[in-house]
Structures are given as C-alpha cells and as structure tokens.
Amino acid sequence: MLAGALMPLLATKRGADRAILLGTLLCMASLVLVVALPRQTVYYAALLLFGFGNAGTRVARSALFFSLVPNAVMGRVGTFFGVFDRVLRTVLTFAMTLVLAQASAVLCFTVLLAVLLAALAGTLATRDVARKPDPAAPPAS
C-alpha cells in the first residue's frame, strides 16, 4: 500500500522512467540480499524491499503507459502487455518449480536476479522513449 501511495508521487516529481528504475533496483537489491546473506531476518527485510519494488514498478509502469499510449490503441496495447506479463509469470513459475525440485532455492533467486538484470538493461536502453520532448528545445537534426 505504501508503494501504491509513494510511487505516483515519485513518478510525478521525477518521472515515471526513474520510478520504474528505482523499483527495479529495489527488486534486484532484495534478490542480492537473499542470495548473499541467507538468514531469516535478511529474508524478511528482502521481502519488504521486493514487495515495495515490485508494486512500485507496476504503479509507475501504469503511469508511464497512460502518458505514452494514445487512447485509440490503449486497449490493444494494454491487452498485449497483460498477456505478456501473464505468460512470463507462468513460464517463470514453471521453470522455478523445476529448478527448485532439481537444485536449490539459491539457484532460483539467482535466475530471478538474472531476469531482473535483463529488465534493468531493457529499462536503461529504452528510457529515452519515456521522456517527453521539451517543446522549447530546438529540433534534432
């Protein structure tokens, strides 16, 4: 609930792209904590970080989505990303169940950290798309 209240403020003040980046970094930090320090108290602290980062990223992503996508195609684009999200979650749940049965939970968290690193790389690579051009700036040649 705290992330749902704070992330729109952060997205408004600093931009949705930075809020998404912060959420992704919080999720990564939580996974690093779990893998590096496998203790119960660290696990609970990491769960709080992960929950805040995950919820915050979703809220900021929605804010960015509504500011970038025209109303005429909002339904189709929203459906595409909703289906993509559901398929990715299902595949990751299936894969982590198999990995957990064959190896250990640490390997699962390591794989999730790798997925988050890929998401962070994608966020950094496409963050210029999320920034609205300054109307006073001269056109790029």
How would you portray this structure in words?
Helices cover 84% and strands 0% of the residues. With 141 residues, the protein is mostly helical. Helix 1 crosses helix 3 (40-68), helix 2 (16-36) packs antiparallel against helix 3 (40-68) and helix 2 (16-36) packs antiparallel against helix 5. The radius of gyration is 17 Å and the shape is globular. The mean pLDDT is 80.
Termini Cα gap: 45 Å
Averaging pLDDT over every residue, what do you get? 80
| Sheet/helix structural class | mainly alpha
Helix content: over 70%
Spell out the helices and strands N to C: HHHHH
Largest sheet: none
Number of strands: 0
Radius of gyration: 17 Å
Low-confidence residue ranges: none
Count up the domains.
1
Share of residues in strands? under 5%
- Rough outline: globular
Topology at a glance:
Layout: H1 2-14, H2 16-36, H3 40-68, H4 74-102, H5 105-130
Helix pairs in contact: 1-2, 1-3, 2-3, 2-5, 4-5
Q: TL;DR?
A:
This protein is mainly alpha-helical and 141 residues long. Helix content is 84%, strand content 0%.
Features:
141 residues; mainly alpha; 84% helix
